[in-house]
Write a structure and sequence with these properties.
Helix content: 40-55%
Number of strands: 8
Number of helices: 11
Largest sheet: 4 strands, antiparallel
Order of helices and strands: HHEEHHEEHHEEEEHHHHH
Length: 283
């Protein structure tokens, strides 16, 4: 017996159910990340919505710190990969400048060359920490340089973490750790955040690269507002940022109004009822 063809509504419901299951799996993945373990269900869904809308990998491309979405160094590096391959941009080796107990140990070595090396290295690191305002207490501090062809000045990203340097004061007057990721892996985190800062500055130098990353950064600010307010975007997605210019996105941020939705995106009552029924089944 031939299978009865599905109606248009049934086909749309099946597709919506598949999308819903995919998003639920993404939410579970997000809440499994170190930065996502304290997110509420609504906040995790807002992050998932942002990632789906902008074609991002929630594991590799985003972090949520202090209720804000941050794009990772890996996101910027991937978007800038064509510039690296073409030689337009070169990345210098990371310069780590935090204090290092091994240098202190070498400074007490019986070998004169080792003592001299330790003295020079420690002095150089101290100079760079002073230049860039890096606290001596930081257990991870890194400087990343990007060099652009025909541009004599390097683009520099600097960051540090660990050693209690990112503690904050609560309204009740209690100090708390505002950067658990940085405290757990200070050297690795300082490097990736320094690279992120350098790539973000590159967007101001190379217009084509900026046109790729700036709209996604602007969308992150909108999504961060929703996370902070514990709001979950309605369907269709608010404010339909994909493909829109940075100017439009910034206007959305300023006015807090959603971009207009075309009549083609209007809700189908039959589909809405069926989706609600399926949500109740899935739960």
């Amino acid at each position: 017996m031939a299978e009865k063809p599905k109606s248009e509504v049934s086909a749309r419901v099946d597709a919506a159910r598949a999308l819903m299951r995919e998003r639920n799996e993404l939410v579970r993945t997000i809440r499994g990340q170190m930065w996502g373990k304290d997110l509420s269900e609504q906040q995790a869904r807002a992050v998932a919505h942002y990632c789906n809308t902008n074609g991002l990998d929630a594991v590799r491309h985003v972090e949520v710190l202090g209720g804000r979405i941050y794009l990772t160094a890996e996101f910027y590096r991937e978007r800038g990969a064509p510039l690296l391959r073409s030689g337009i941009v070169r990345r210098a080796p990371t310069d780590f400048v935090h204090t290092d107990a091994r240098l202190d140990a070498l400074a007490e070595s019986a070998d004169e060359q080792e003592r001299e090396y330790a003295r020079r290295a420690a002095f150089r690191r101290r100079q760079l920490r002073i230049r860039w305002g890096i606290p001596d207490e930081a257990t991870g501090a890194a400087i990343v340089e990007l060099r652009v062809r025909d541009n004599p000045e390097p683009i520099v990203g600097v960051n540090w973490c660990g050693g209690g340097t990112r503690q904050k004061m609560s309204r009740e007057g209690r100090r708390y750790d505002a950067d658990p990721i940085g405290d757990l892996e200070p050297v690795k985190t300082a490097e990736t955040r320094s690279e992120r800062r350098a790539w973000r500055q590159l967007a101001d130098v190379i217009a084509d690269y900026g046109s790729v990353v700036r709209p996604i950064e602007a969308a992150a600010r909108v999504a961060s507002e929703e996370i902070a307010a514990e709001l979950l975007p309605d369907e269709p997605p608010r404010p339909l940022l994909q493909g829109r210019s940075t100017e439009i996105v910034n206007r959305v941020i300023e006015t807090r109004e959603a971009a207009p939705v075309s009549s083609a995106d209007a809700r189908d009552p039959d589909l809405e009822r069926e989706l609600q029924r399926q949500r109740e089944i899935d739960e």
